[in-house]
Specification:
The complex is a heterodimer.
Chain A lengths: L4 E3 L2 E5 L4 E6 L6 E7 L5 E8 L4 E4 L2 E6 L4 E6 L8 E8 L5 E3 L3 E6 L1
Parallel strand pairs in A: 2-11
Antiparallel strand pairs in A: 1-3, 3-8, 4-5, 4-9, 6-7, 7-8, 9-10, 9-11
Chain B lengths: L3 E4 L2 E4 L5 E7 L5 E8 L3 E8 L6 E2 L7 E3 L5 E6 L8 E8 L9 E2 L3 E5 L1
Parallel strand pairs in B: 2-11
Antiparallel strand pairs in B: 1-3, 3-8, 4-5, 4-9, 5-6, 7-8, 9-10, 9-11
The chains are: A mainly beta, B mainly beta.
Chain lengths: ~110, ~110
């Protein structure tokens, strides 16, 4: 399956702590994307990292990609209660379609 | 600029009934997609369109039909609803393919089939 597998399935941390979520996949990719979903809402795009990139930053978000290990991680630094959401990785292969993982549910306690 | 708008937001159907879910985008995107989201399953692609007048099957197309008569609209039809189609349905659009472009999602339609 091309689907990304995310780890952990659920994560609970205190406000101010860092949160790390991981995504592993089995096929070769063109890019890997991370999305956030707040409860009852649609997904919102966070970061796209191409297969020839190793790291990208956006504000408090840092994404790494290791194509040799077929894995990616999303780090949220100095977490806030508003970061409470589900986070999904999505794999883009040569088909051009995005295949989503099952997501990590993050709870940030104030 | 409303982005991607889905109607209705909620719907309850009885087994065998039909309905159409409407998706509209105002970003002039070529690509549009229908996904379903089920607990523990992530998002699964039902059908997609690479431009006006075109449609293609995704991972789980059975029991659904789609049409893209206008560039801004993508309709998802259920001809004879089944309890297995109880899910949250998301429409998305993108400027280009997933090779280059992020997806923009609507807020979903929660469908229950009894």
């Amino acid at each position: 399956s091309q689907q990304g597998e995310e780890d952990p399935q659920a994560l609970s941390i205190q406000e101010g702590e860092n949160a790390t979520m991981n995504c592993s996949y089995k096929t070769s990719i063109n890019n890997l994307q991370w999305y956030r979903q707040n409860s009852g809402r649609g997904l919102v795009h966070l970061i796209l990292i191409r297969s020839n990139e190793r790291e990208k930053h956006s504000g408090r978000l840092r994404v790494t990609l290791d194509t040799s290990k077929k894995s990616s991680s999303l780090l949220i630094t100095a977490s806030r209660a508003a970061d409470t959401a589900s986070y999904f990785c999505a794999i883009s292969s040569n088909t051009g379609k995005l295949i989503f993982g099952q997501g990590t549910t993050l709870q940030v306690k104030p | 600029n409303a982005g991607v708008t889905q109607t209705p937001k909620f719907r309850v159907l009885k087994t065998g009934q039909s309905m159409t879910l409407l998706c509209a985008q105002d970003m002039n995107h070529e690509y549009m997609y229908w996904y379903r989201q089920d607990p523990g399953m992530g998002l699964r692609l039902i059908h997609y369109s690479v431009g006006e007048g075109t449609t293609a099957k995704g991972e789980v197309p059975d029991g659904y039909n789609v049409s893209r008569l206008k560039k801004q609209n993508f309709l998802l039809g259920l001809e004879s609803a089944a309890p297995s189609q109880t899910s949250v349905y998301f429409c998305a659009s993108s400027y280009g393919t997933g090779l280059f472009s992020p997806l923009h999602f609507g807020n979903g339609t929660r469908l229950t089939v009894t």
